[in-house]
Amino acid sequence: MAEVVSRTESLCPHCLRRVPAERVAVGDELFLRRSCPEHGEVEPVLLWRNRTIPYSLWSRPGDPSALPPPDPPGDCPRLCGICAGHRQSTCSAIVEITARCDLRCPVCFAASGPAAGPDPDLAGLERLLGRTFARAGNCPLQLSGGEPTLRDDLPLIVRRAHEIGFDHVQVNTNGLRLGRDPEFARALADAGVTDFFLQFDGVSDDVFRRLRGAPLLDLKLGALERCRELQVGVILVPTLVKGVNDAQIGELIEFAKAWMPVVKGIHFQPQAWLGRYPHSPRNNDRVLIPDILEAIERQTGGEIETGNFIPPG
Fold this sequence. Notes:
- The protein is of the alpha/beta class.
- It folds into two domains: 2-66, no CATH class; 93-281, TIM Barrel (Alpha-Beta Barrel), CATH 3.20.20.70.
- The protein has helices at residues 122-136, 154-164, 176-180, 182-191, 205-212, 217-230, 249-258, 289-299, and strands spanning 2-11, 18-26, 29-36, 40-41, 45-49, 93-96, 141-144, 169-173, 195-199, 233-237, 239-240, 263-266, 269-270.
- The strands form three sheets. A six-stranded parallel sheet has the order 6-7-8-9-10-12. Strands 1, 2, 3, 4 and 5 form a five-stranded antiparallel sheet that branches.
- Helix 1 (122-136) links the parallel strand 6 (93-96) and strand 7 (141-144).
- The longest helix has 15 residues, at 122-136.
- 26% of the residues are buried.
């Protein structure tokens, strides 16, 4: 029997019209249910499963309709951002400095590739970084893309970000140039890069072939070795795809432990269903937060338990 847990707003996936939505519990699963005046009932989207890890503890409290209107007013959720309606602040600012990439990953949420347009110039980036700092303050900054290391002036951008006032400047990268170009990696370290947010999907090349289109493990290991030499920290970032690398979660944790202290942590990212992906999403394809938590506990033999994780405040 379906139970309405809360009401919110969403978008029609066909026309992007703003529509009312409900979070509906059916057994141990939670779905987002919505209907569009033009396109009718949309297939419910699976949000959560497993009542032993309560959804209520892992969601922000309150019903958006009961909150004060955004200040300044905006078209929520189409122009989603920092607003009173969602009581958020910037925990990490992401600035995309290129749309180019030297890979063409089948699961890229940005659909990046080698045929992208020109990069924003340095002067424009400095203005953007200045506005970001004025609005968000001295929060962690991530330089992202595309693949940021394709920009030869990336060390200069890192320096400029520090001069503007950012203490923590992270580079989001696939790591290929770090492994191939030791002088460029050293230039980034000398410029003050704080750490690298390193795409690292698994501990075997079959995973990289499936998700990145090439056997990249040796290049990734080379990038890690370079960071260890330069004493620059790394966050491993696996994109989790069901049936591809979700069985390697425990092995990735063991791998990270073996590479301490250069590896500072792991940021598991379930596949995003936007950008470039092989087919339209199905609920059975989704890797959800409770799936990851349970896999961590099971695949580490209970060394890390689901209860060790703290839900958002």
